[in-house]
Amino acid sequence: MAIKISLCMIVKNEADNLNRCLKSVSDIVDEIIIVDTGSTDSTCDIAQQHGAKVHHFLWNDNFSDARNSSLDRAQGDWVLFLDADEELSPSSRDRLTPLLECEDIEGYFVKIINYLGREGWTETVPDLVFRLFRNKKEYRFRGAIHEQIADVILEKNTQAKYQIAEDFTILHYGYSDHLIQVKDKKYRNISLIEKELAKQPANRLLQFHYGVELFRAERYTEASEIFIQAAENTDPHTIYFPKLLRYLVIAQQSSGQLKEALNTAEIGLKLFPNYADLYYYSGLLQRDLKHYSQARNAFLQALSMPEQPPQYASFGGVRGFRSYYCLAQIAELFLDEEEALKYYLLSLRDNPNFTLALESLVSILKPAQEPDYAEECLKRICDFCTPEANRLMGEIYYKHGAYDLALDYFEKAADGVPVMSQLKLKRAICLLQARRYFESLRLLEDFTPESPDYALAVLNRLFCYWLQDMPHKVRSIWKELYALGLEQNTENVLSLFLMTQDKTNPSGQINLNSDGVLLLLDIVQRLVNLQEIERALFFLQTITSECLCEYALQIAQIFMNYGQEIQALPFLNTALEQKPTSEIHFQRAEIYSHLGKLFEAEQDYQVALKLDPNSPRPYLRLIDLYTASRQNILQEALAKFPANQTFVKLAEGGSDYHEAKD
């Protein structure tokens, strides 16, 4: 006699998900039982189209009651439970029937892959859930939320055996940010769990789930306290205990309890010495505590770990691209660009979609200053062949102000595909930055008043004519922009184009909000890129000293990005007057060093070291500086005393004067 399978589900307003779910089990289950808890969309119609038996249930804030209502109607020998935002993986379809033929197994833990994060960028986190079990009247769910049945089965049948269903996988999409927001899952779940905990305050599993919901609601301090309660007196062999420890570490880290989090991770690794996530988070914590050697060792340990068991719910990339990325960041802190590039590349090879590694790699290559070198390097190590990959590369170059390189990739991305408004606008801007004015204007004039980018297109037309010293055109377009009803800060910035034409002296009295400053700095960056330094300085001289001081570091960075270090110095000086930091002193020391002002460089490196003794970069630069100074002094001495054996021995490798003399 054939074994029959009942798919049991509870649903509410799942029209966007249900079709995908039911398609994934078509022809492999014998019946579909749908319990609807109050849908107002087409959920029930979709269920019936797939042959489901739909029953209605008056929602009472209790998931177990709803699930048990579906079990009461199931006729199969076995029950498979799915939620509407899940689906059975295609490779699992052929694995279901063989699992049910094992006569001594009462139920199965199933691997589930959770997709987390924003649309377009998702994380995959595996876990184990109990979803497949024999259909018996005494087996019923318990608990208003995060309902359980595995424990109930063991209570009813002390001889019951469970297994992990190998190669049988459920895919879960319900933790994407979009779906959580739509369903308001965080706050709904917190409310329900709090009601249950009031009835069962000592229930460790409920405490664990409560901590998870608090964590998702970003209530990290409360979450860490609950996780600690849940961990007390819980058997470490409990299936969720590794996840509990990992959550506790991250909650403590997120609430600023770095040393406590590190201690928790160390305790966890004694219990689970192959837990890659705990090594990874230990690395993050050691890095934040500026213990760089320990951090590096922890990331290397994470990379060396074996495949993680599903119950660890290991985050994707901790044994790969994430740890490589962190190793690259540490290498950058030690000014080892070669090693940093190596690890960024390994990160990208492990996950080509990890754009943080690509952006960091591009940043090291300084494409705004050395576009040819950056392009040559990236072509060797990265393959950009799809329109989307070319668009992404163009966006990264554009962000770094390397407009020529960005244009090349934007044009590749536009070949053979519809051109999006923003992509067309950025292409036009890149053409303008290449002083290909006619081509740029042709694109900019395509934008109509209905376009969301129309105002920016008109602004760039004004910029284009202004660069060509065409005052009548500038005035005409300025009036067109003014008629659009500009925000006051935008109007203030655009009025500067007229002031330069009228030869009006800058007053230094324009005060801008953050949006106005962003527009001004974008114009300044593009002028510096065009080597229009005087015009860029004119724009900067118009804003108030208070506004200039607040954004002095960002202004200095613009000039440094394009190798205009002398122009950057006054703004770094202004930033230091406002708030001296190790980073600003280090940046100024770098400029002094490039300009050959070694005494001034040494002073700034020393101050940077004093302000942040745990930063390795000032140490490394001072070692280089003193080594170079020693060589210069030695060469001068040899020029004056060419036959002196003491100086000759020092030049040949003697470490100090006394050693050379002996």
TrEMBL record:
Q: Which CDD domains match?
A: Beta4Glucosyltransferase
The TPR repeat units are at 387-420, 582-615
Q: Which organism is it from?
A: Desulfosporosinus acidiphilus (strain DSM 22704 / JCM 16185 / SJ4)
Q: Which PROSITE patterns match?
A: TPR
Q: What is this protein called?
A: Glycosyl transferase
Question: Cross-referenced InterPro entries, in alphabetical order?
Answer: Glyco_trans_2-like, Nucleotide-diphossugar_trans, TPR-like_helical_dom_sf, TPR_2, TPR_rpt
Molecular function as annotated in GO:
transferase activity
Highest taxon listed in the record's lineage: Bacteria
Domain Glycosyltransferase 2-like: residue ranges: 6-125
